[in-house]
Amino acid sequence: MTGIVLALAASLSWGIADFVGPVKARVLGTLRVLIYAQVAGLLGVALLVAVRQEPLPSAAVLLAIPASISGTLGLYAYYRGVIAGAVSIVAPVAGASAVIPVILGIATGDRPGPLPLVGIACALLGVALASREPGENDRRLAAGVGLAILAAIGFGFYFPFMHVAGDENPWWASLIFRSVSTLVILVAVLARRPPLRVGRVDLAIVVLVGLGDMMGNLLFAASSGHGLVSVTSVLASLYPIVTIALARIVLQEHVARSQRVGIALTLTGVALIAAG
Q1: What are phi and psi of 194, to 5 degrees?
Q2: How many domains in the chain?
Q3: pLDDT at residue 5 greater than cutoff 70
Q4: Is the backbone of residue 29 left (phi > 0), alpha (psi -120 to 50) or beta?
Q5: Mean pLDDT over residues 227-256, rounded?
């Protein structure tokens, strides 16, 4: 039960951060938001580790490094996807990342019941429907969907690596994760040289986004010691429900009926995977 609660708390934290951050990036730019968010998250988790005086863990915690690289690339693709398209479309497509840990589990010997298999089918069908832009040319993908699929791949491979690292020590795993993600974004900033100046209000919002994202990572890492990756990763992937609700309330986003069916199928698929 503890693992379920922590994973659901991670999805709530991510859901809020993954709405506010990309929407703010529509105005400020992706890298400008991400660099301040990453630094804020790094300082926050470093302070927590220092206060707790966590002992050095074993080498297994270093799997947070590939988790960070994959997750950070996925986050960048997700932000760019939201800038290009509707939050209500991009978020559930990216949330289909829950399929990847289950497929990896099957490949390594897991034998899931019928519900996860039905869930995978529903999630994939839902992504296909949500991705289609209705109109005369029904082969056209909705804006931002290609980036959302890349985000799903990045997020999907984040989960198994971070699960092992978090099972070893969630605090150090989160610190290593955030250190690497900050370095990745810093390299991108140095290469692209975007404008970095932001106002005080925007800076405060972005800092909160970074802390929220950091808390999501920490909560997921903590859930790893209380449940299987195929369960905790799927429950943590329910964050699009929060993001879509905020997009509906705050942005009053409207999508086509067929895309609404796709969104519902995708979220249903993720729920079925978790229930299995």
Answers
A1: -75, 160
A2: 1
A3: yes
A4: left
A5: 77
